[in-house]
Amino acid sequence: MNKIIVVDFGGQYTQLIARRVREAHVYCEIVPFDAAMDRLTSEDVRGYILAGGPNSVNDPGVPMCDPALLDLGKPVLGICYGAQLMAKLLGGIVDKPETGEYGGVDVVYDERCALFAGLNPNSTVWMSHNDAIVKMPQGFVSAAHTPHCPIAAMAREDQQLYALQFHPEVQHTKLGFDILKKFLYDICHCAEEWIIGDLAGGMIASLKAEIGDRRVLSALSGGVDSAVASVLVHKAIGDNLTCIFVDHGMLRKNEAERVLQVYRDEFGMNLIFVDAKERFLSKLKGVTDPEEKRKIIGTEFIRVFEEEAAKIGSPEILVQGTIYPDVIESGVGHANTIKSHHNVGGLPENMAFTKIVEPLRGLFKDEVRALGVALGIPASQVWRQPFPGPGLAVRILGEITPYKLKIVQDSDAILREEIAAAGLERDIWQYFTVLPNVRSVGVMGDGRTYDELVAIRAVTSSDAMTVDFARIPYEILAKISSRIIAEVDHVNRVVYDVTSKPPGTIEWE
Ligand SMILES: Nc1ncnc2c1ncn2[C@@H]1O[C@H](COP(=O)(O)OP(=O)(O)OP(=O)(O)O)[C@@H](O)[C@H]1O
Ligand SMILES: O=c1[nH]c(=O)c2[nH+]cn([C@@H]3O[C@H](COP(=O)(O)O)[C@@H](O)[C@H]3O)c2[nH]1
Ligand SMILES: NC(=O)CC[C@H](N)C(=O)O
Ligand SMILES: [Mg+2]
């Protein structure tokens, strides 16, 4: 299959570029800027995109790619930092102009350039740069300009080298997706062959070959990723798959019953259910630090998997629902650890399993969902909101106690009922309640109360990397608030979280 390589320089939008390429039905991979050339130059590579980044190409020690990449005779598209790097590596000059550009800007495209051919030449683009290309390398021409940026795009078409100062991957660049598609189809001559529904058969066949007749244990949470991973493996190896679902006591209200009903009763999967409530809660007793909670839960999950595996003849393979963003965040780039996700950073070193199989580790969430639909998993499962492995533990600030768990479970159930009743389930990426460990004074039934505060968190997103708070209509919020206070014991106040990500994160811990 054709592929595009997206070179990561630590920018905010690298993943977004990759998603856009995939949305155009072209396969792509993100590689770090310092990857060895032989990882980048296989025959199926049709072109390269050099992504953005926070550094200035003129500073010492900043991320650079191998200049040989520009000399392979394959098309290269530089975006922002990637554009500036292309200019610099080929002998142009990058400098700090008097004004940078941030946000939406008017642009004029030169239609003679293959990237803009046939597009409306007067449009708007989204900019975010302090530096700019002030002198182009030899043989390049300017192909777009804005009021403050005479070289908003440059090209050397005889060598298929293109550079954009603006970001075609963000929605605010009006014709951005068209420009990317021109690069992919007209310049790199990629075929539209990355079609998720068509991949299921090949994935099942290669799982069959990879696993053979060995036995496998799959950690099934009832979430989208592990459900799709488990169904794929089930189709590949049938009864050699055993699934394991752990109730760690921090699941949503009625979640355990629902998972068992869908996957054991309706799907007929071989599913072990472990009631480990006491075990997890006693390990977490007195623990208040968020990272410590996450690590305890991550380790305890694996220990439970191992103990149960030993009871069924010790399958050596563990299946996990890890997806591409988990892999990128833990491997590529040079990002800070914000929180340890239990299935990636949180895995203990010594494990009884000799092999981990992660059939979805190359896919984005929207692709996992499309695959789930193609595999016949019901829409009610495929479109569920993500639920973190550590569960309500990261939604109860401070120590976890049965009293607090009940408040979060009951208030969350009301929120979910009302969001469903309002028909907003598909519009909101995640929605849940949080117990921040705060009490306040209120008046109920003419008497004073001094009780718990519940926060509602609801966000819109397409990949959980950046989010905005959901604009739930006030009337619906009012109904949720009054139901929570009336129906959940010990709650006398409800607040709405209006923080985006960044600077917040989705979960509170
Ligand atoms: N309660 C659980 N029992 C067994 N395995 C679990 C449980 N919770 C999480 N896991 C494992 O951890 C992995 C990562 O969890 P994560 O929440 O990212 O994915 P998911 O639950 O499958 O999907 P979603 O993101 O939609 O919630 C899961 O794919 C699953 O393998
Ligand atoms: O399986 C998981 N194990 C974890 O440890 C974990 N922590 C956060 N999340 C989910 O990841 C997404 C991003 O969350 P944050 O904005 O809170 O970092 C959101 O979808 C969160 O619900 C987790 N999922
Ligand atoms: N978004 C980017 O890639 C920015 C590139 C570079 N850091 C600049 O400020 O110009
Ligand atoms: Mg989950």
Automatic annotation (TrEMBL):
Q: What pathway is this protein said to act in by its record? A: Purine metabolism; GMP biosynthesis; GMP from XMP (L-Gln route): step 1/1
Q: Cellular component GO terms, alphabetically?
A: cytosol
Q: Provide the GMPS ATP-PPase domain boundaries.
A: 194-384
**Entry's Gene Ontology molecular function annotations:** ATP binding; GMP synthase activity
Keywords of this entry: ATP-binding, Glutamine amidotransferase, GMP biosynthesis, Ligase, Nucleotide-binding, Purine biosynthesis
Q: Which SUPFAM superfamilies match?
A: Adenine nucleotide alpha hydrolases-like (SSF52402), Class I glutamine amidotransferase-like (SSF52317)
Keyword Nucleotide-binding (UniProt): yes
Q: Which PROSITE patterns does the annotation name?
A: GATASE_TYPE_1 (PS51273), GMPS_ATP_PPASE (PS51553)
Q: What is its EC number?
A: 6.3.5.2
Task: Indicate yes or no for the key word Methyltransferase.
Answer: no
Q: Which Gene3D superfamilies match?
A: 3.30.300.10, 3.40.50.880, HUPs
According to UniProt, the reaction catalysed is: XMP + L-glutamine + ATP + H2O = GMP + L-glutamate + AMP + diphosphate + 2 H(+)
Give the CDD domains listed for this entry: GATase1_GMP_Synthase (cd01742), GMP_synthase_C (cd01997)
Q: Which residues bind ATP?
A: 221-227
Give the transmembrane region(s): none
Top enzyme class, one word, equals: ligase
Residues at the catalytic site: 80 (nucleophile), 167, 169
* Biological role: Catalyzes the synthesis of GMP from XMP.
Give the quaternary structure.
Answer: Homodimer.
Protein name per Swiss-Prot or TrEMBL: GMP synthase [glutamine-hydrolyzing]
Query: Which gene produces this protein?
Result: guaA
